[in-house]
Amino acid sequence: MKLAVIAVALLLPLVAGAADIDEFDFFYFVQQKCWPEYCDNSNQLLTFAIRDLIRELAGNWPTLSCKNGGGGPSIEFWAYEWKKHGTCSGLGQHGYFAAALDLKRLAGILAGAGIVPSEDAWYPLSAIRAAIADVTGAIPNLECQRDAFGETQLYQVYQCVARDGKTLIDCEHPMSGRCSDRVKLPPFY
Fold first, then answer.
1. How far apart are CA 83 and CA 100, in angstroms?
2. Which of 155, 163, 109, 105 is nearest to 132 (CA)?
3. 53: Cα separation from own chain's centroid
4. CATH code, domain carrying 24
């Protein structure tokens, strides 16, 4: 059976000014380039379908983009994510956003392995990947970026899931993100 795969990206804290704020959203569902997008443009997000999730979404999946008010309700952002990726997930609106919130636990997994935001610490990329795989049973994809000083930072963690939105699977297509053997995980201020 062919599995449609969706990935969860956890945008990890970045040093202020190191990333374009218009591109920085803390937590979002994303699909890689080889996966379908915009499967049903007529399927608009109905906020009443996710009304019981809005408070939790606001705390765990806000948009920090200045163009969206920088902290207010992120309905427009969530509507965009639903239209672009959710309509291809095979899940309903509530199921899609609930699955995203369930997968938010990645930050806790890293902290449990002693991988926490720090100004000074460097972490082996293999330790980050292993910490996630040990707890979830699935190998993630990792993406990095360079800060203003040229230091490699962990930028996104992609956790791949089966069409049911719950079963984690190994990410089969490695990413060519700008990662080195050791990366920083700086705090976000």
1. 15
2. 109
3. 17
4. 3.90.730.10
The C-alpha atoms of residue 6 and residue 66 are separated, in whole angstroms, by 27
Q: Is residue 37 part of a domain?
A: yes
In a domain, 189, yes or no: no
Number of domains in the chain: 1
Residues near 38 by beta carbon (within 8 Å), at least 6 away in sequence: 83, 84, 87, 88
Higher-confidence residue of 2 and 116: namely: 116
Q: Does this model's pTM top 0.85?
A: no
- Are the C-beta atoms of residues 89 and 4 closer than 8 Å to each other? yes
In this structure, is residue 28 part of a structural domain? yes
Structural domain boundaries enclosing 109: 6-184
Query: From residue 76, how far is each of 33, 46, 47 by CA, in Å?
Result: 23, 11, 10
At 53-69, the pLDDT tens digits run 999 998 888 775 555 55
User: Would you list the DSSP string of 47-83?
Assistant: GGGGTTTHHHHHHHS-B--GGGTSSS--HHHHHHHHH
Dihedral-angle region of residue 173 (phi above 0 means left; psi in -120 to 50 means alpha; beta otherwise): beta
CA distance 13 to 18: 10
Tokens of 119: 């100004």
40: amino acid identity, one letter: D
